[in-house]
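anyone seen this seq b4? input:
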Amino acid sequence: MSDTPYIFDVSGAASFEQLVIENSFHKPVLVDFWAEWCAPCKALMPMLAKIAEEYRGELLLAKVDCDAEHEIVQRFGIRSLPTVVLFKDGQPVDGFAGAQPESAVREMLKPHVAEPAPQAADPMEAAQALFAEGRIGDAENLLKQILGENNENGAALILYARCLAERGELGEAEVVLGAVKGDEHKQALAGAKAQLTFLRQAADLPDGAELKTRLAQNPEDDEAAYQLAIQQLARQQYEAALDGLLRLFVRNRSYAEGLPHKTLLQVFDLLGGDHPLVTTYRRKLYQAIY
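predicted toks r here
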């Protein structure tokens, strides 16, 4: 029996009904039919266990010893070992017979179970990776765990606020940012506040399609150009927004008392100094100024 709760042995038909069939209505269950004498089975088993552990409960692994569970073997017509069957909603939906490379097993699972969250030595790295992938809910859940251990973790508070902002909880996000102490995360805090500003501004502006129509009719409509950039920032279309802001700055750097320049600097804070777009557009802005 494995120490991992996601991996378990099946013993008897009743156990199979409970651990495999009933569980499969909640989470996919991968069933490994194996035997002690089967060398390929023993080679495959650690790899299946590693995959199941990576999913951390989103995929269960049940092991059936075919020498002991004749009734289950006959029920599913298992004729060769190893055989691996994936169950969902009480039914077998996929599987394979014979030893398979890890890449093939993962490919078989893809249509049936969400990719596991990336592993990282630092939980904050994992949360940041999830946020970057757009998996806001998963990032938020991990950040809640981090903050449960230390509710003054500035980096976690800032990223949690950004998750809230992405879900439209702008007021709550602002409260969370207000709890960040010290100057250690000054740039990240400025970026998160900029994100809230862009989202609030975008809510009161015409939609992107209308603004693009105005610019098509009059490419020098500075107001439409600026408002479109804000709409793009609110939707994380950063490259398009930076390009529009830079062109507006070059055309009319005094627009709204230098607002394009100020907004470009806000976007640089939002993305962070190491972001490739920041590197590119900081250089272009410098060239435009000098």
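The radius of gyration is 27 Å. The longest helix spans residues 186-203. kinda curious what u guys think
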